[in-house]
Each structure stands twice: as C-alpha cells, then as structure tokens.
Write a structure and sequence with these properties.
By secondary structure, this protein is an alpha/beta fold. The protein folds into 3 domains: about 55 residues, 3-Layer(aba) Sandwich (Rossmann fold); about 80 residues, no CATH class; about 110 residues, Metal-dependent hydrolases (TIM Barrel, Alpha-Beta Barrel). About 20% of the residues lie in helices and about 20% in strands. The chain contains 5 helices and 14 strands. The chain has a 4-stranded mixed beta sheet with strand order 8-7-4-9, with no helix packed on it. Strands 1-2-3 form a 3-stranded parallel beta sheet, covered by helices on one side. Helix 1 links the parallel strand 1 and strand 2. The radius of gyration is 22 Å and the shape is globular.
Length: about 270
C-alpha cells in the first residue's frame, strides 16, 4: 500500500481511495488513517475513517449507477444577453411535492464542491464546460435546458493516474489502442473521465509499444486518455511489490532514450 504516487500526497493534493471487500481492505483503511494524519484531504469509499469524506457505494446508493452525462444543447439568450447554456440540477423526486425551480424551497440532492456536498445547487454548463455553480433561480437558468438527475448525486469525473487494466484486458498483455479503448470504457462506467494507461515493469520493446499506442490513442481522441504511466522497470528490487523481478533493470542509455521519447505535451 505504500509505494508509487502515494509519496506525492500532501495537504494541497487530495486523494481518493476505493476500498474493496477483500484482503486489501485493512491495508487501505490503515493507509487512509495515515494520510488523514498528514492532513491530506481524503475521500474514501468502502470503509469509514474519521477525518475523511466517506463516499456512498453503488450497493447502498443505486442512483449512482444511473447517473449519466448528456450533451448540452443551446437555448434562447436571456435579456442580459448571457450565452445560452445547459443546466443539470440534482433534485430529489417526490410524489407529494411538485418540482420547483425556487432554490430556496426546492429539495435538492447534493452536489460535490470543494467544501463538501452542497444542497440546492445547479451546475450551469455551456458546451462542454462548467461555467457556474449556482442556484436554480439564477436568471441564466431560464434559457437553459434542464437535466433532472432524479435523485442521483452530481460529482466531478475522477482522474485515475494508475490504470493497469479493465474490461478483461491488461495493458501489459496487449499495449494497443483497442486495449486502451476497452479499459477506458470499463472505468468510465464508474465515473473515471480521465486516466493514464499504466504499464508495470516489462521489456523495453513492450514499453515502446505502450508509448506508441497511447500517442496514437490520444491522436484518435479515444475518450479519457490523458497520458501514459510507465511504472518500472527501473525500480528498487526490495520494493518491487507485484512487479516481476526478471523484468527489472538498471537505468542505462537505452532506457533514458526511451523515456525521453515521451517528450512534453500541454494544453492551454
């Protein structure tokens, strides 16, 4: 539990932990307590840890599984000539109470913000960008198309920096664009909107194929791919974890050249 990107976590770097119901559960709980003690902002699902934001699981909140995003559409401009937008409100449906847009009285399902879950909010979207976190009585909402989440919670998409596989595929076994597409589809069902296909220690030829596949996937606009995570093979054998010791090696000129081939890409 104590290796890799965990060393980067600090008070300005929040963490999300998903604890599974298996032998790793106690280790995840111990790690979460340690991070909370270091004042790392924590959100965790699967276990309860004091000081961390406990997220609901699909088993106890089936509405999460129904939560989905739909493309925004344009509407008529308002009197103040604000741009047309789309609005998604998380509302609690009730047979006894009609739906209302009055943010002071409507019973809203929470929206996750920097300060935790907030009630009575609307997320205003223009095109593919969030332009405001406001209340349903905001004048801009009148010209917007409304998407009722019917009791589901609205959260930011998760960014996963270590994704070794998904959908029955492992990136090491087949470092191809198709594998990346299958992995992304599998993780997107659970809220991951951006991820790094991750390769554990392997031969340099496999690493080269992985880098090429990710570069091609990004060029082809495969949903969610934001880069590649090369985990090894230049690591300490005493801390190899699940890595195959036979694939580990010292960093040499070939290894440096391969890693430098990644280059640098940024987005404004």
């Amino acid at each position: 539990m104590r290796h890799g990107p965990q060393a980067l976590l600090q008070s300005e770097f929040p963490a999300l932990l998903l604890a599974q119901d298996d032998e790793s559960r106690s280790g995840m709980e111990e790690l979460a307590r340690d991070l909370v003690g270091r004042r790392v902002p924590m959100a965790i699902a699967g276990v309860n840890v004091n000081g961390a934001t406990v997220l609901p699981t699909i088993e106890s909140h089936t509405a999460i599984a129904r939560c989905c995003w739909r493309r925004a559409s344009t509407g008529s401009p308002t009197r103040s000539r604000l741009p047309a937008a789309s609005i998604r409100t998380a509302r609690r449906s009730s047979a006894r109470s009609p739906r209302r847009t009055d943010g002071a009285r409507a019973r809203q399902r929470p929206v996750l913000t920097d300060d935790g879950f907030a009630e009575g909010r609307a997320v205003l979207i223009e095109g593919e960008r969030i332009v405001a976190l406001t209340t349903p009585d905001d004048p801009r909402c009148k010209a917007a198309r409304r998407h009722d989440l019917k009791g589901a919670m609205l959260l930011p998409g998760f960014l996963d920096t270590q994704v070794n596989g998904g959908g029955g595929r492992l990136f090491n076994d087949a470092p191809t664009v198709e594998t990346i597409r299958v992995i992304g589809n599998a993780h997107r069902r659970f809220g991951t909107t951006g991820f790094l296909p991750t390769l554990i220690s392997d031969d340099l030829s496999v690493i080269a194929r992985a880098i090429a596949a990710v570069r091609e996937a990004i060029a082809a606009k495969v949903p969610g791919v934001i880069g590649v995570h090369i985990e090894g093979p230049f690591i300490n054998a005493e801390r190899k974890g699940a890595h195959d010791a036979a694939k580990m090696r010292d960093l040499d000129d070939r290894g440096v050249a391969l890693l430098r081939s990644l280059g640098w890409a940024g987005r404004s």
